[in-house]
Every structure is written in structure tokens, then in C-alpha cells.
Write a structure and sequence with these properties.
By secondary structure, the chain is an all-alpha fold. 66% of the residues lie in helices and 0% in strands. It has 2 domains: 45 residues; 115 residues, no CATH class. Helix 1 packs antiparallel against helix 2, helix 2 packs across helix 8 and helix 5 packs across helix 7. 9% of the residues are buried.
Length: 179
């Protein structure tokens, strides 16, 4: 199949289902490798759809509004946090492990935001404590602002990366002879 052609939905669904089954059955030590394979697959087969969604006006508007709301996160209502019960469930082990694995990249990622929103040291410390305690819950009143800053930086970086993929594809891949 040529890289410019879409993967038929039936084949895509089978691939996703096979991945999910393999990921679920894999030991924790292998899940990062499986996630890497799946990310590569998704980027290869779905980059155009992801690019179209991330560059649409609704997505650009959402990222703009989320970025603009970062300043209001400093006055989080204590009452709202009293109502939140984030001690239910098992937490998010995959997210914790991923954040620990990419910790060295996070400062570069955060440079996409204004200086006052780049510090995520409390968040990363809470992630490490949660991982070491194997309780996998770290989202609370003291980490919410930094978590949301990281989320916005990630969305901006994701959109930028997709623009890079599009530019690369149309300057390099389109010049390769088709077979």
C-alpha cells in the first residue's frame, strides 16, 4: 500500500484491536515499547486527519482559550476541590510512567508557554511520589495548575509537530518516485 493512500477502515480497526489486546496482555515493562509502536502507526496512518483536526478553527480556538485561561488557574476554588474525590479508582499508571520517562524533555516542551507558566516542578515531584508509592494518583489542588500548563504546552507542541510532518511530507515525500 502506498503511503498516500488511506488504510481501509476494516484494516485500521483490526490493527487497533490487535494492538489493544497485545498491550493489555503485555507486562508493564513492555508497555512503553508497545505504546511507541502504536504512536508510530497512528502518526503514519492518521497524521493527515490529526493535522486537519488540530488546524481547524474549533481546535485552534480551544487551544487559544485554554492558553488564555492559565492565568485564572491560580485562584482555584477550594470548595470545588473539596467536592472532587480523586482517590477513587486505580489512577493512571501509564501517564505516570510516561511523565517519568519524558521528564528530561518537559522543560523544552514548557518553553512554548509564557515564562510564568513554565514551572512544573511540583507536578513532577508529585508524579515521582505517586509512582514510588504505586498509588498512581497525583492530580490535586496543588498540582492542577501545573498539570493544565503541561496539557496546553503539549497541545501546542502536538499541533506544531503535525505542521512539521505536513511540511516535511510535501517537500520530501512528494519528490520520491511512486512505484
Amino acid at each position: 500500500m502506498h503511503a498516500d493512500r488511506d488504510v481501509p477502515l476494516q484494516d485500521h480497526a483490526k490493527t487497533v484491536a490487535a494492538y489493544l489486546n497485545d498491550y493489555k496482555a503485555a507486562p508493564d515493562s513492555e508497555k512503553g515499547r508497545y505504546a511507541g509502536y502504536f504512536s508510530s502507526y497512528l502518526l503514519t496512518t492518521c497524521w493527515r486527519n490529526m493535522y486537519n483536526r488540530m488546524s481547524s478553527w474549533p481546535a485552534v480556538g480551544l487551544i487559544f482559550e485554554l492558553n488564555g485561561a492559565l492565568g485564572s488557574l491560580s485562584c482555584i476554588d477550594g470548595h470545588a476541590w473539596e467536592e472532587l474525590d480523586n482517590m477513587q479508582g486505580s489512577g493512571d499508571r501509564t501517564l505516570i510512567h510516561m511523565l517519568v520517562d519524558i521528564e528530561s524533555v518537559i522543560p523544552t516542551l514548557m518553553q512554548r508557554l509564557a515564562n510564568e507558566y513554565q514551572n512544573v516542578l511540583e507536578l513532577l515531584a508529585a508524579v515521582k511520589v505517586a509512582k514510588d508509592a504505586q498509588r498512581y494518583r497525583f492530580y490535586n489542588k496543588s498540582t492542577a495548575r501545573q498539570f493544565h500548563c503541561l496539557l496546553v504546552a503539549d497541545l501546542i507542541a502536538f499541533a506544531s509537530s503535525l505542521r512539521f510532518v505536513k511540511a516535511w511530507k510535501y517537500t520530501h515525500v512528494s519528490t520520491v518516485p511512486r512505484s
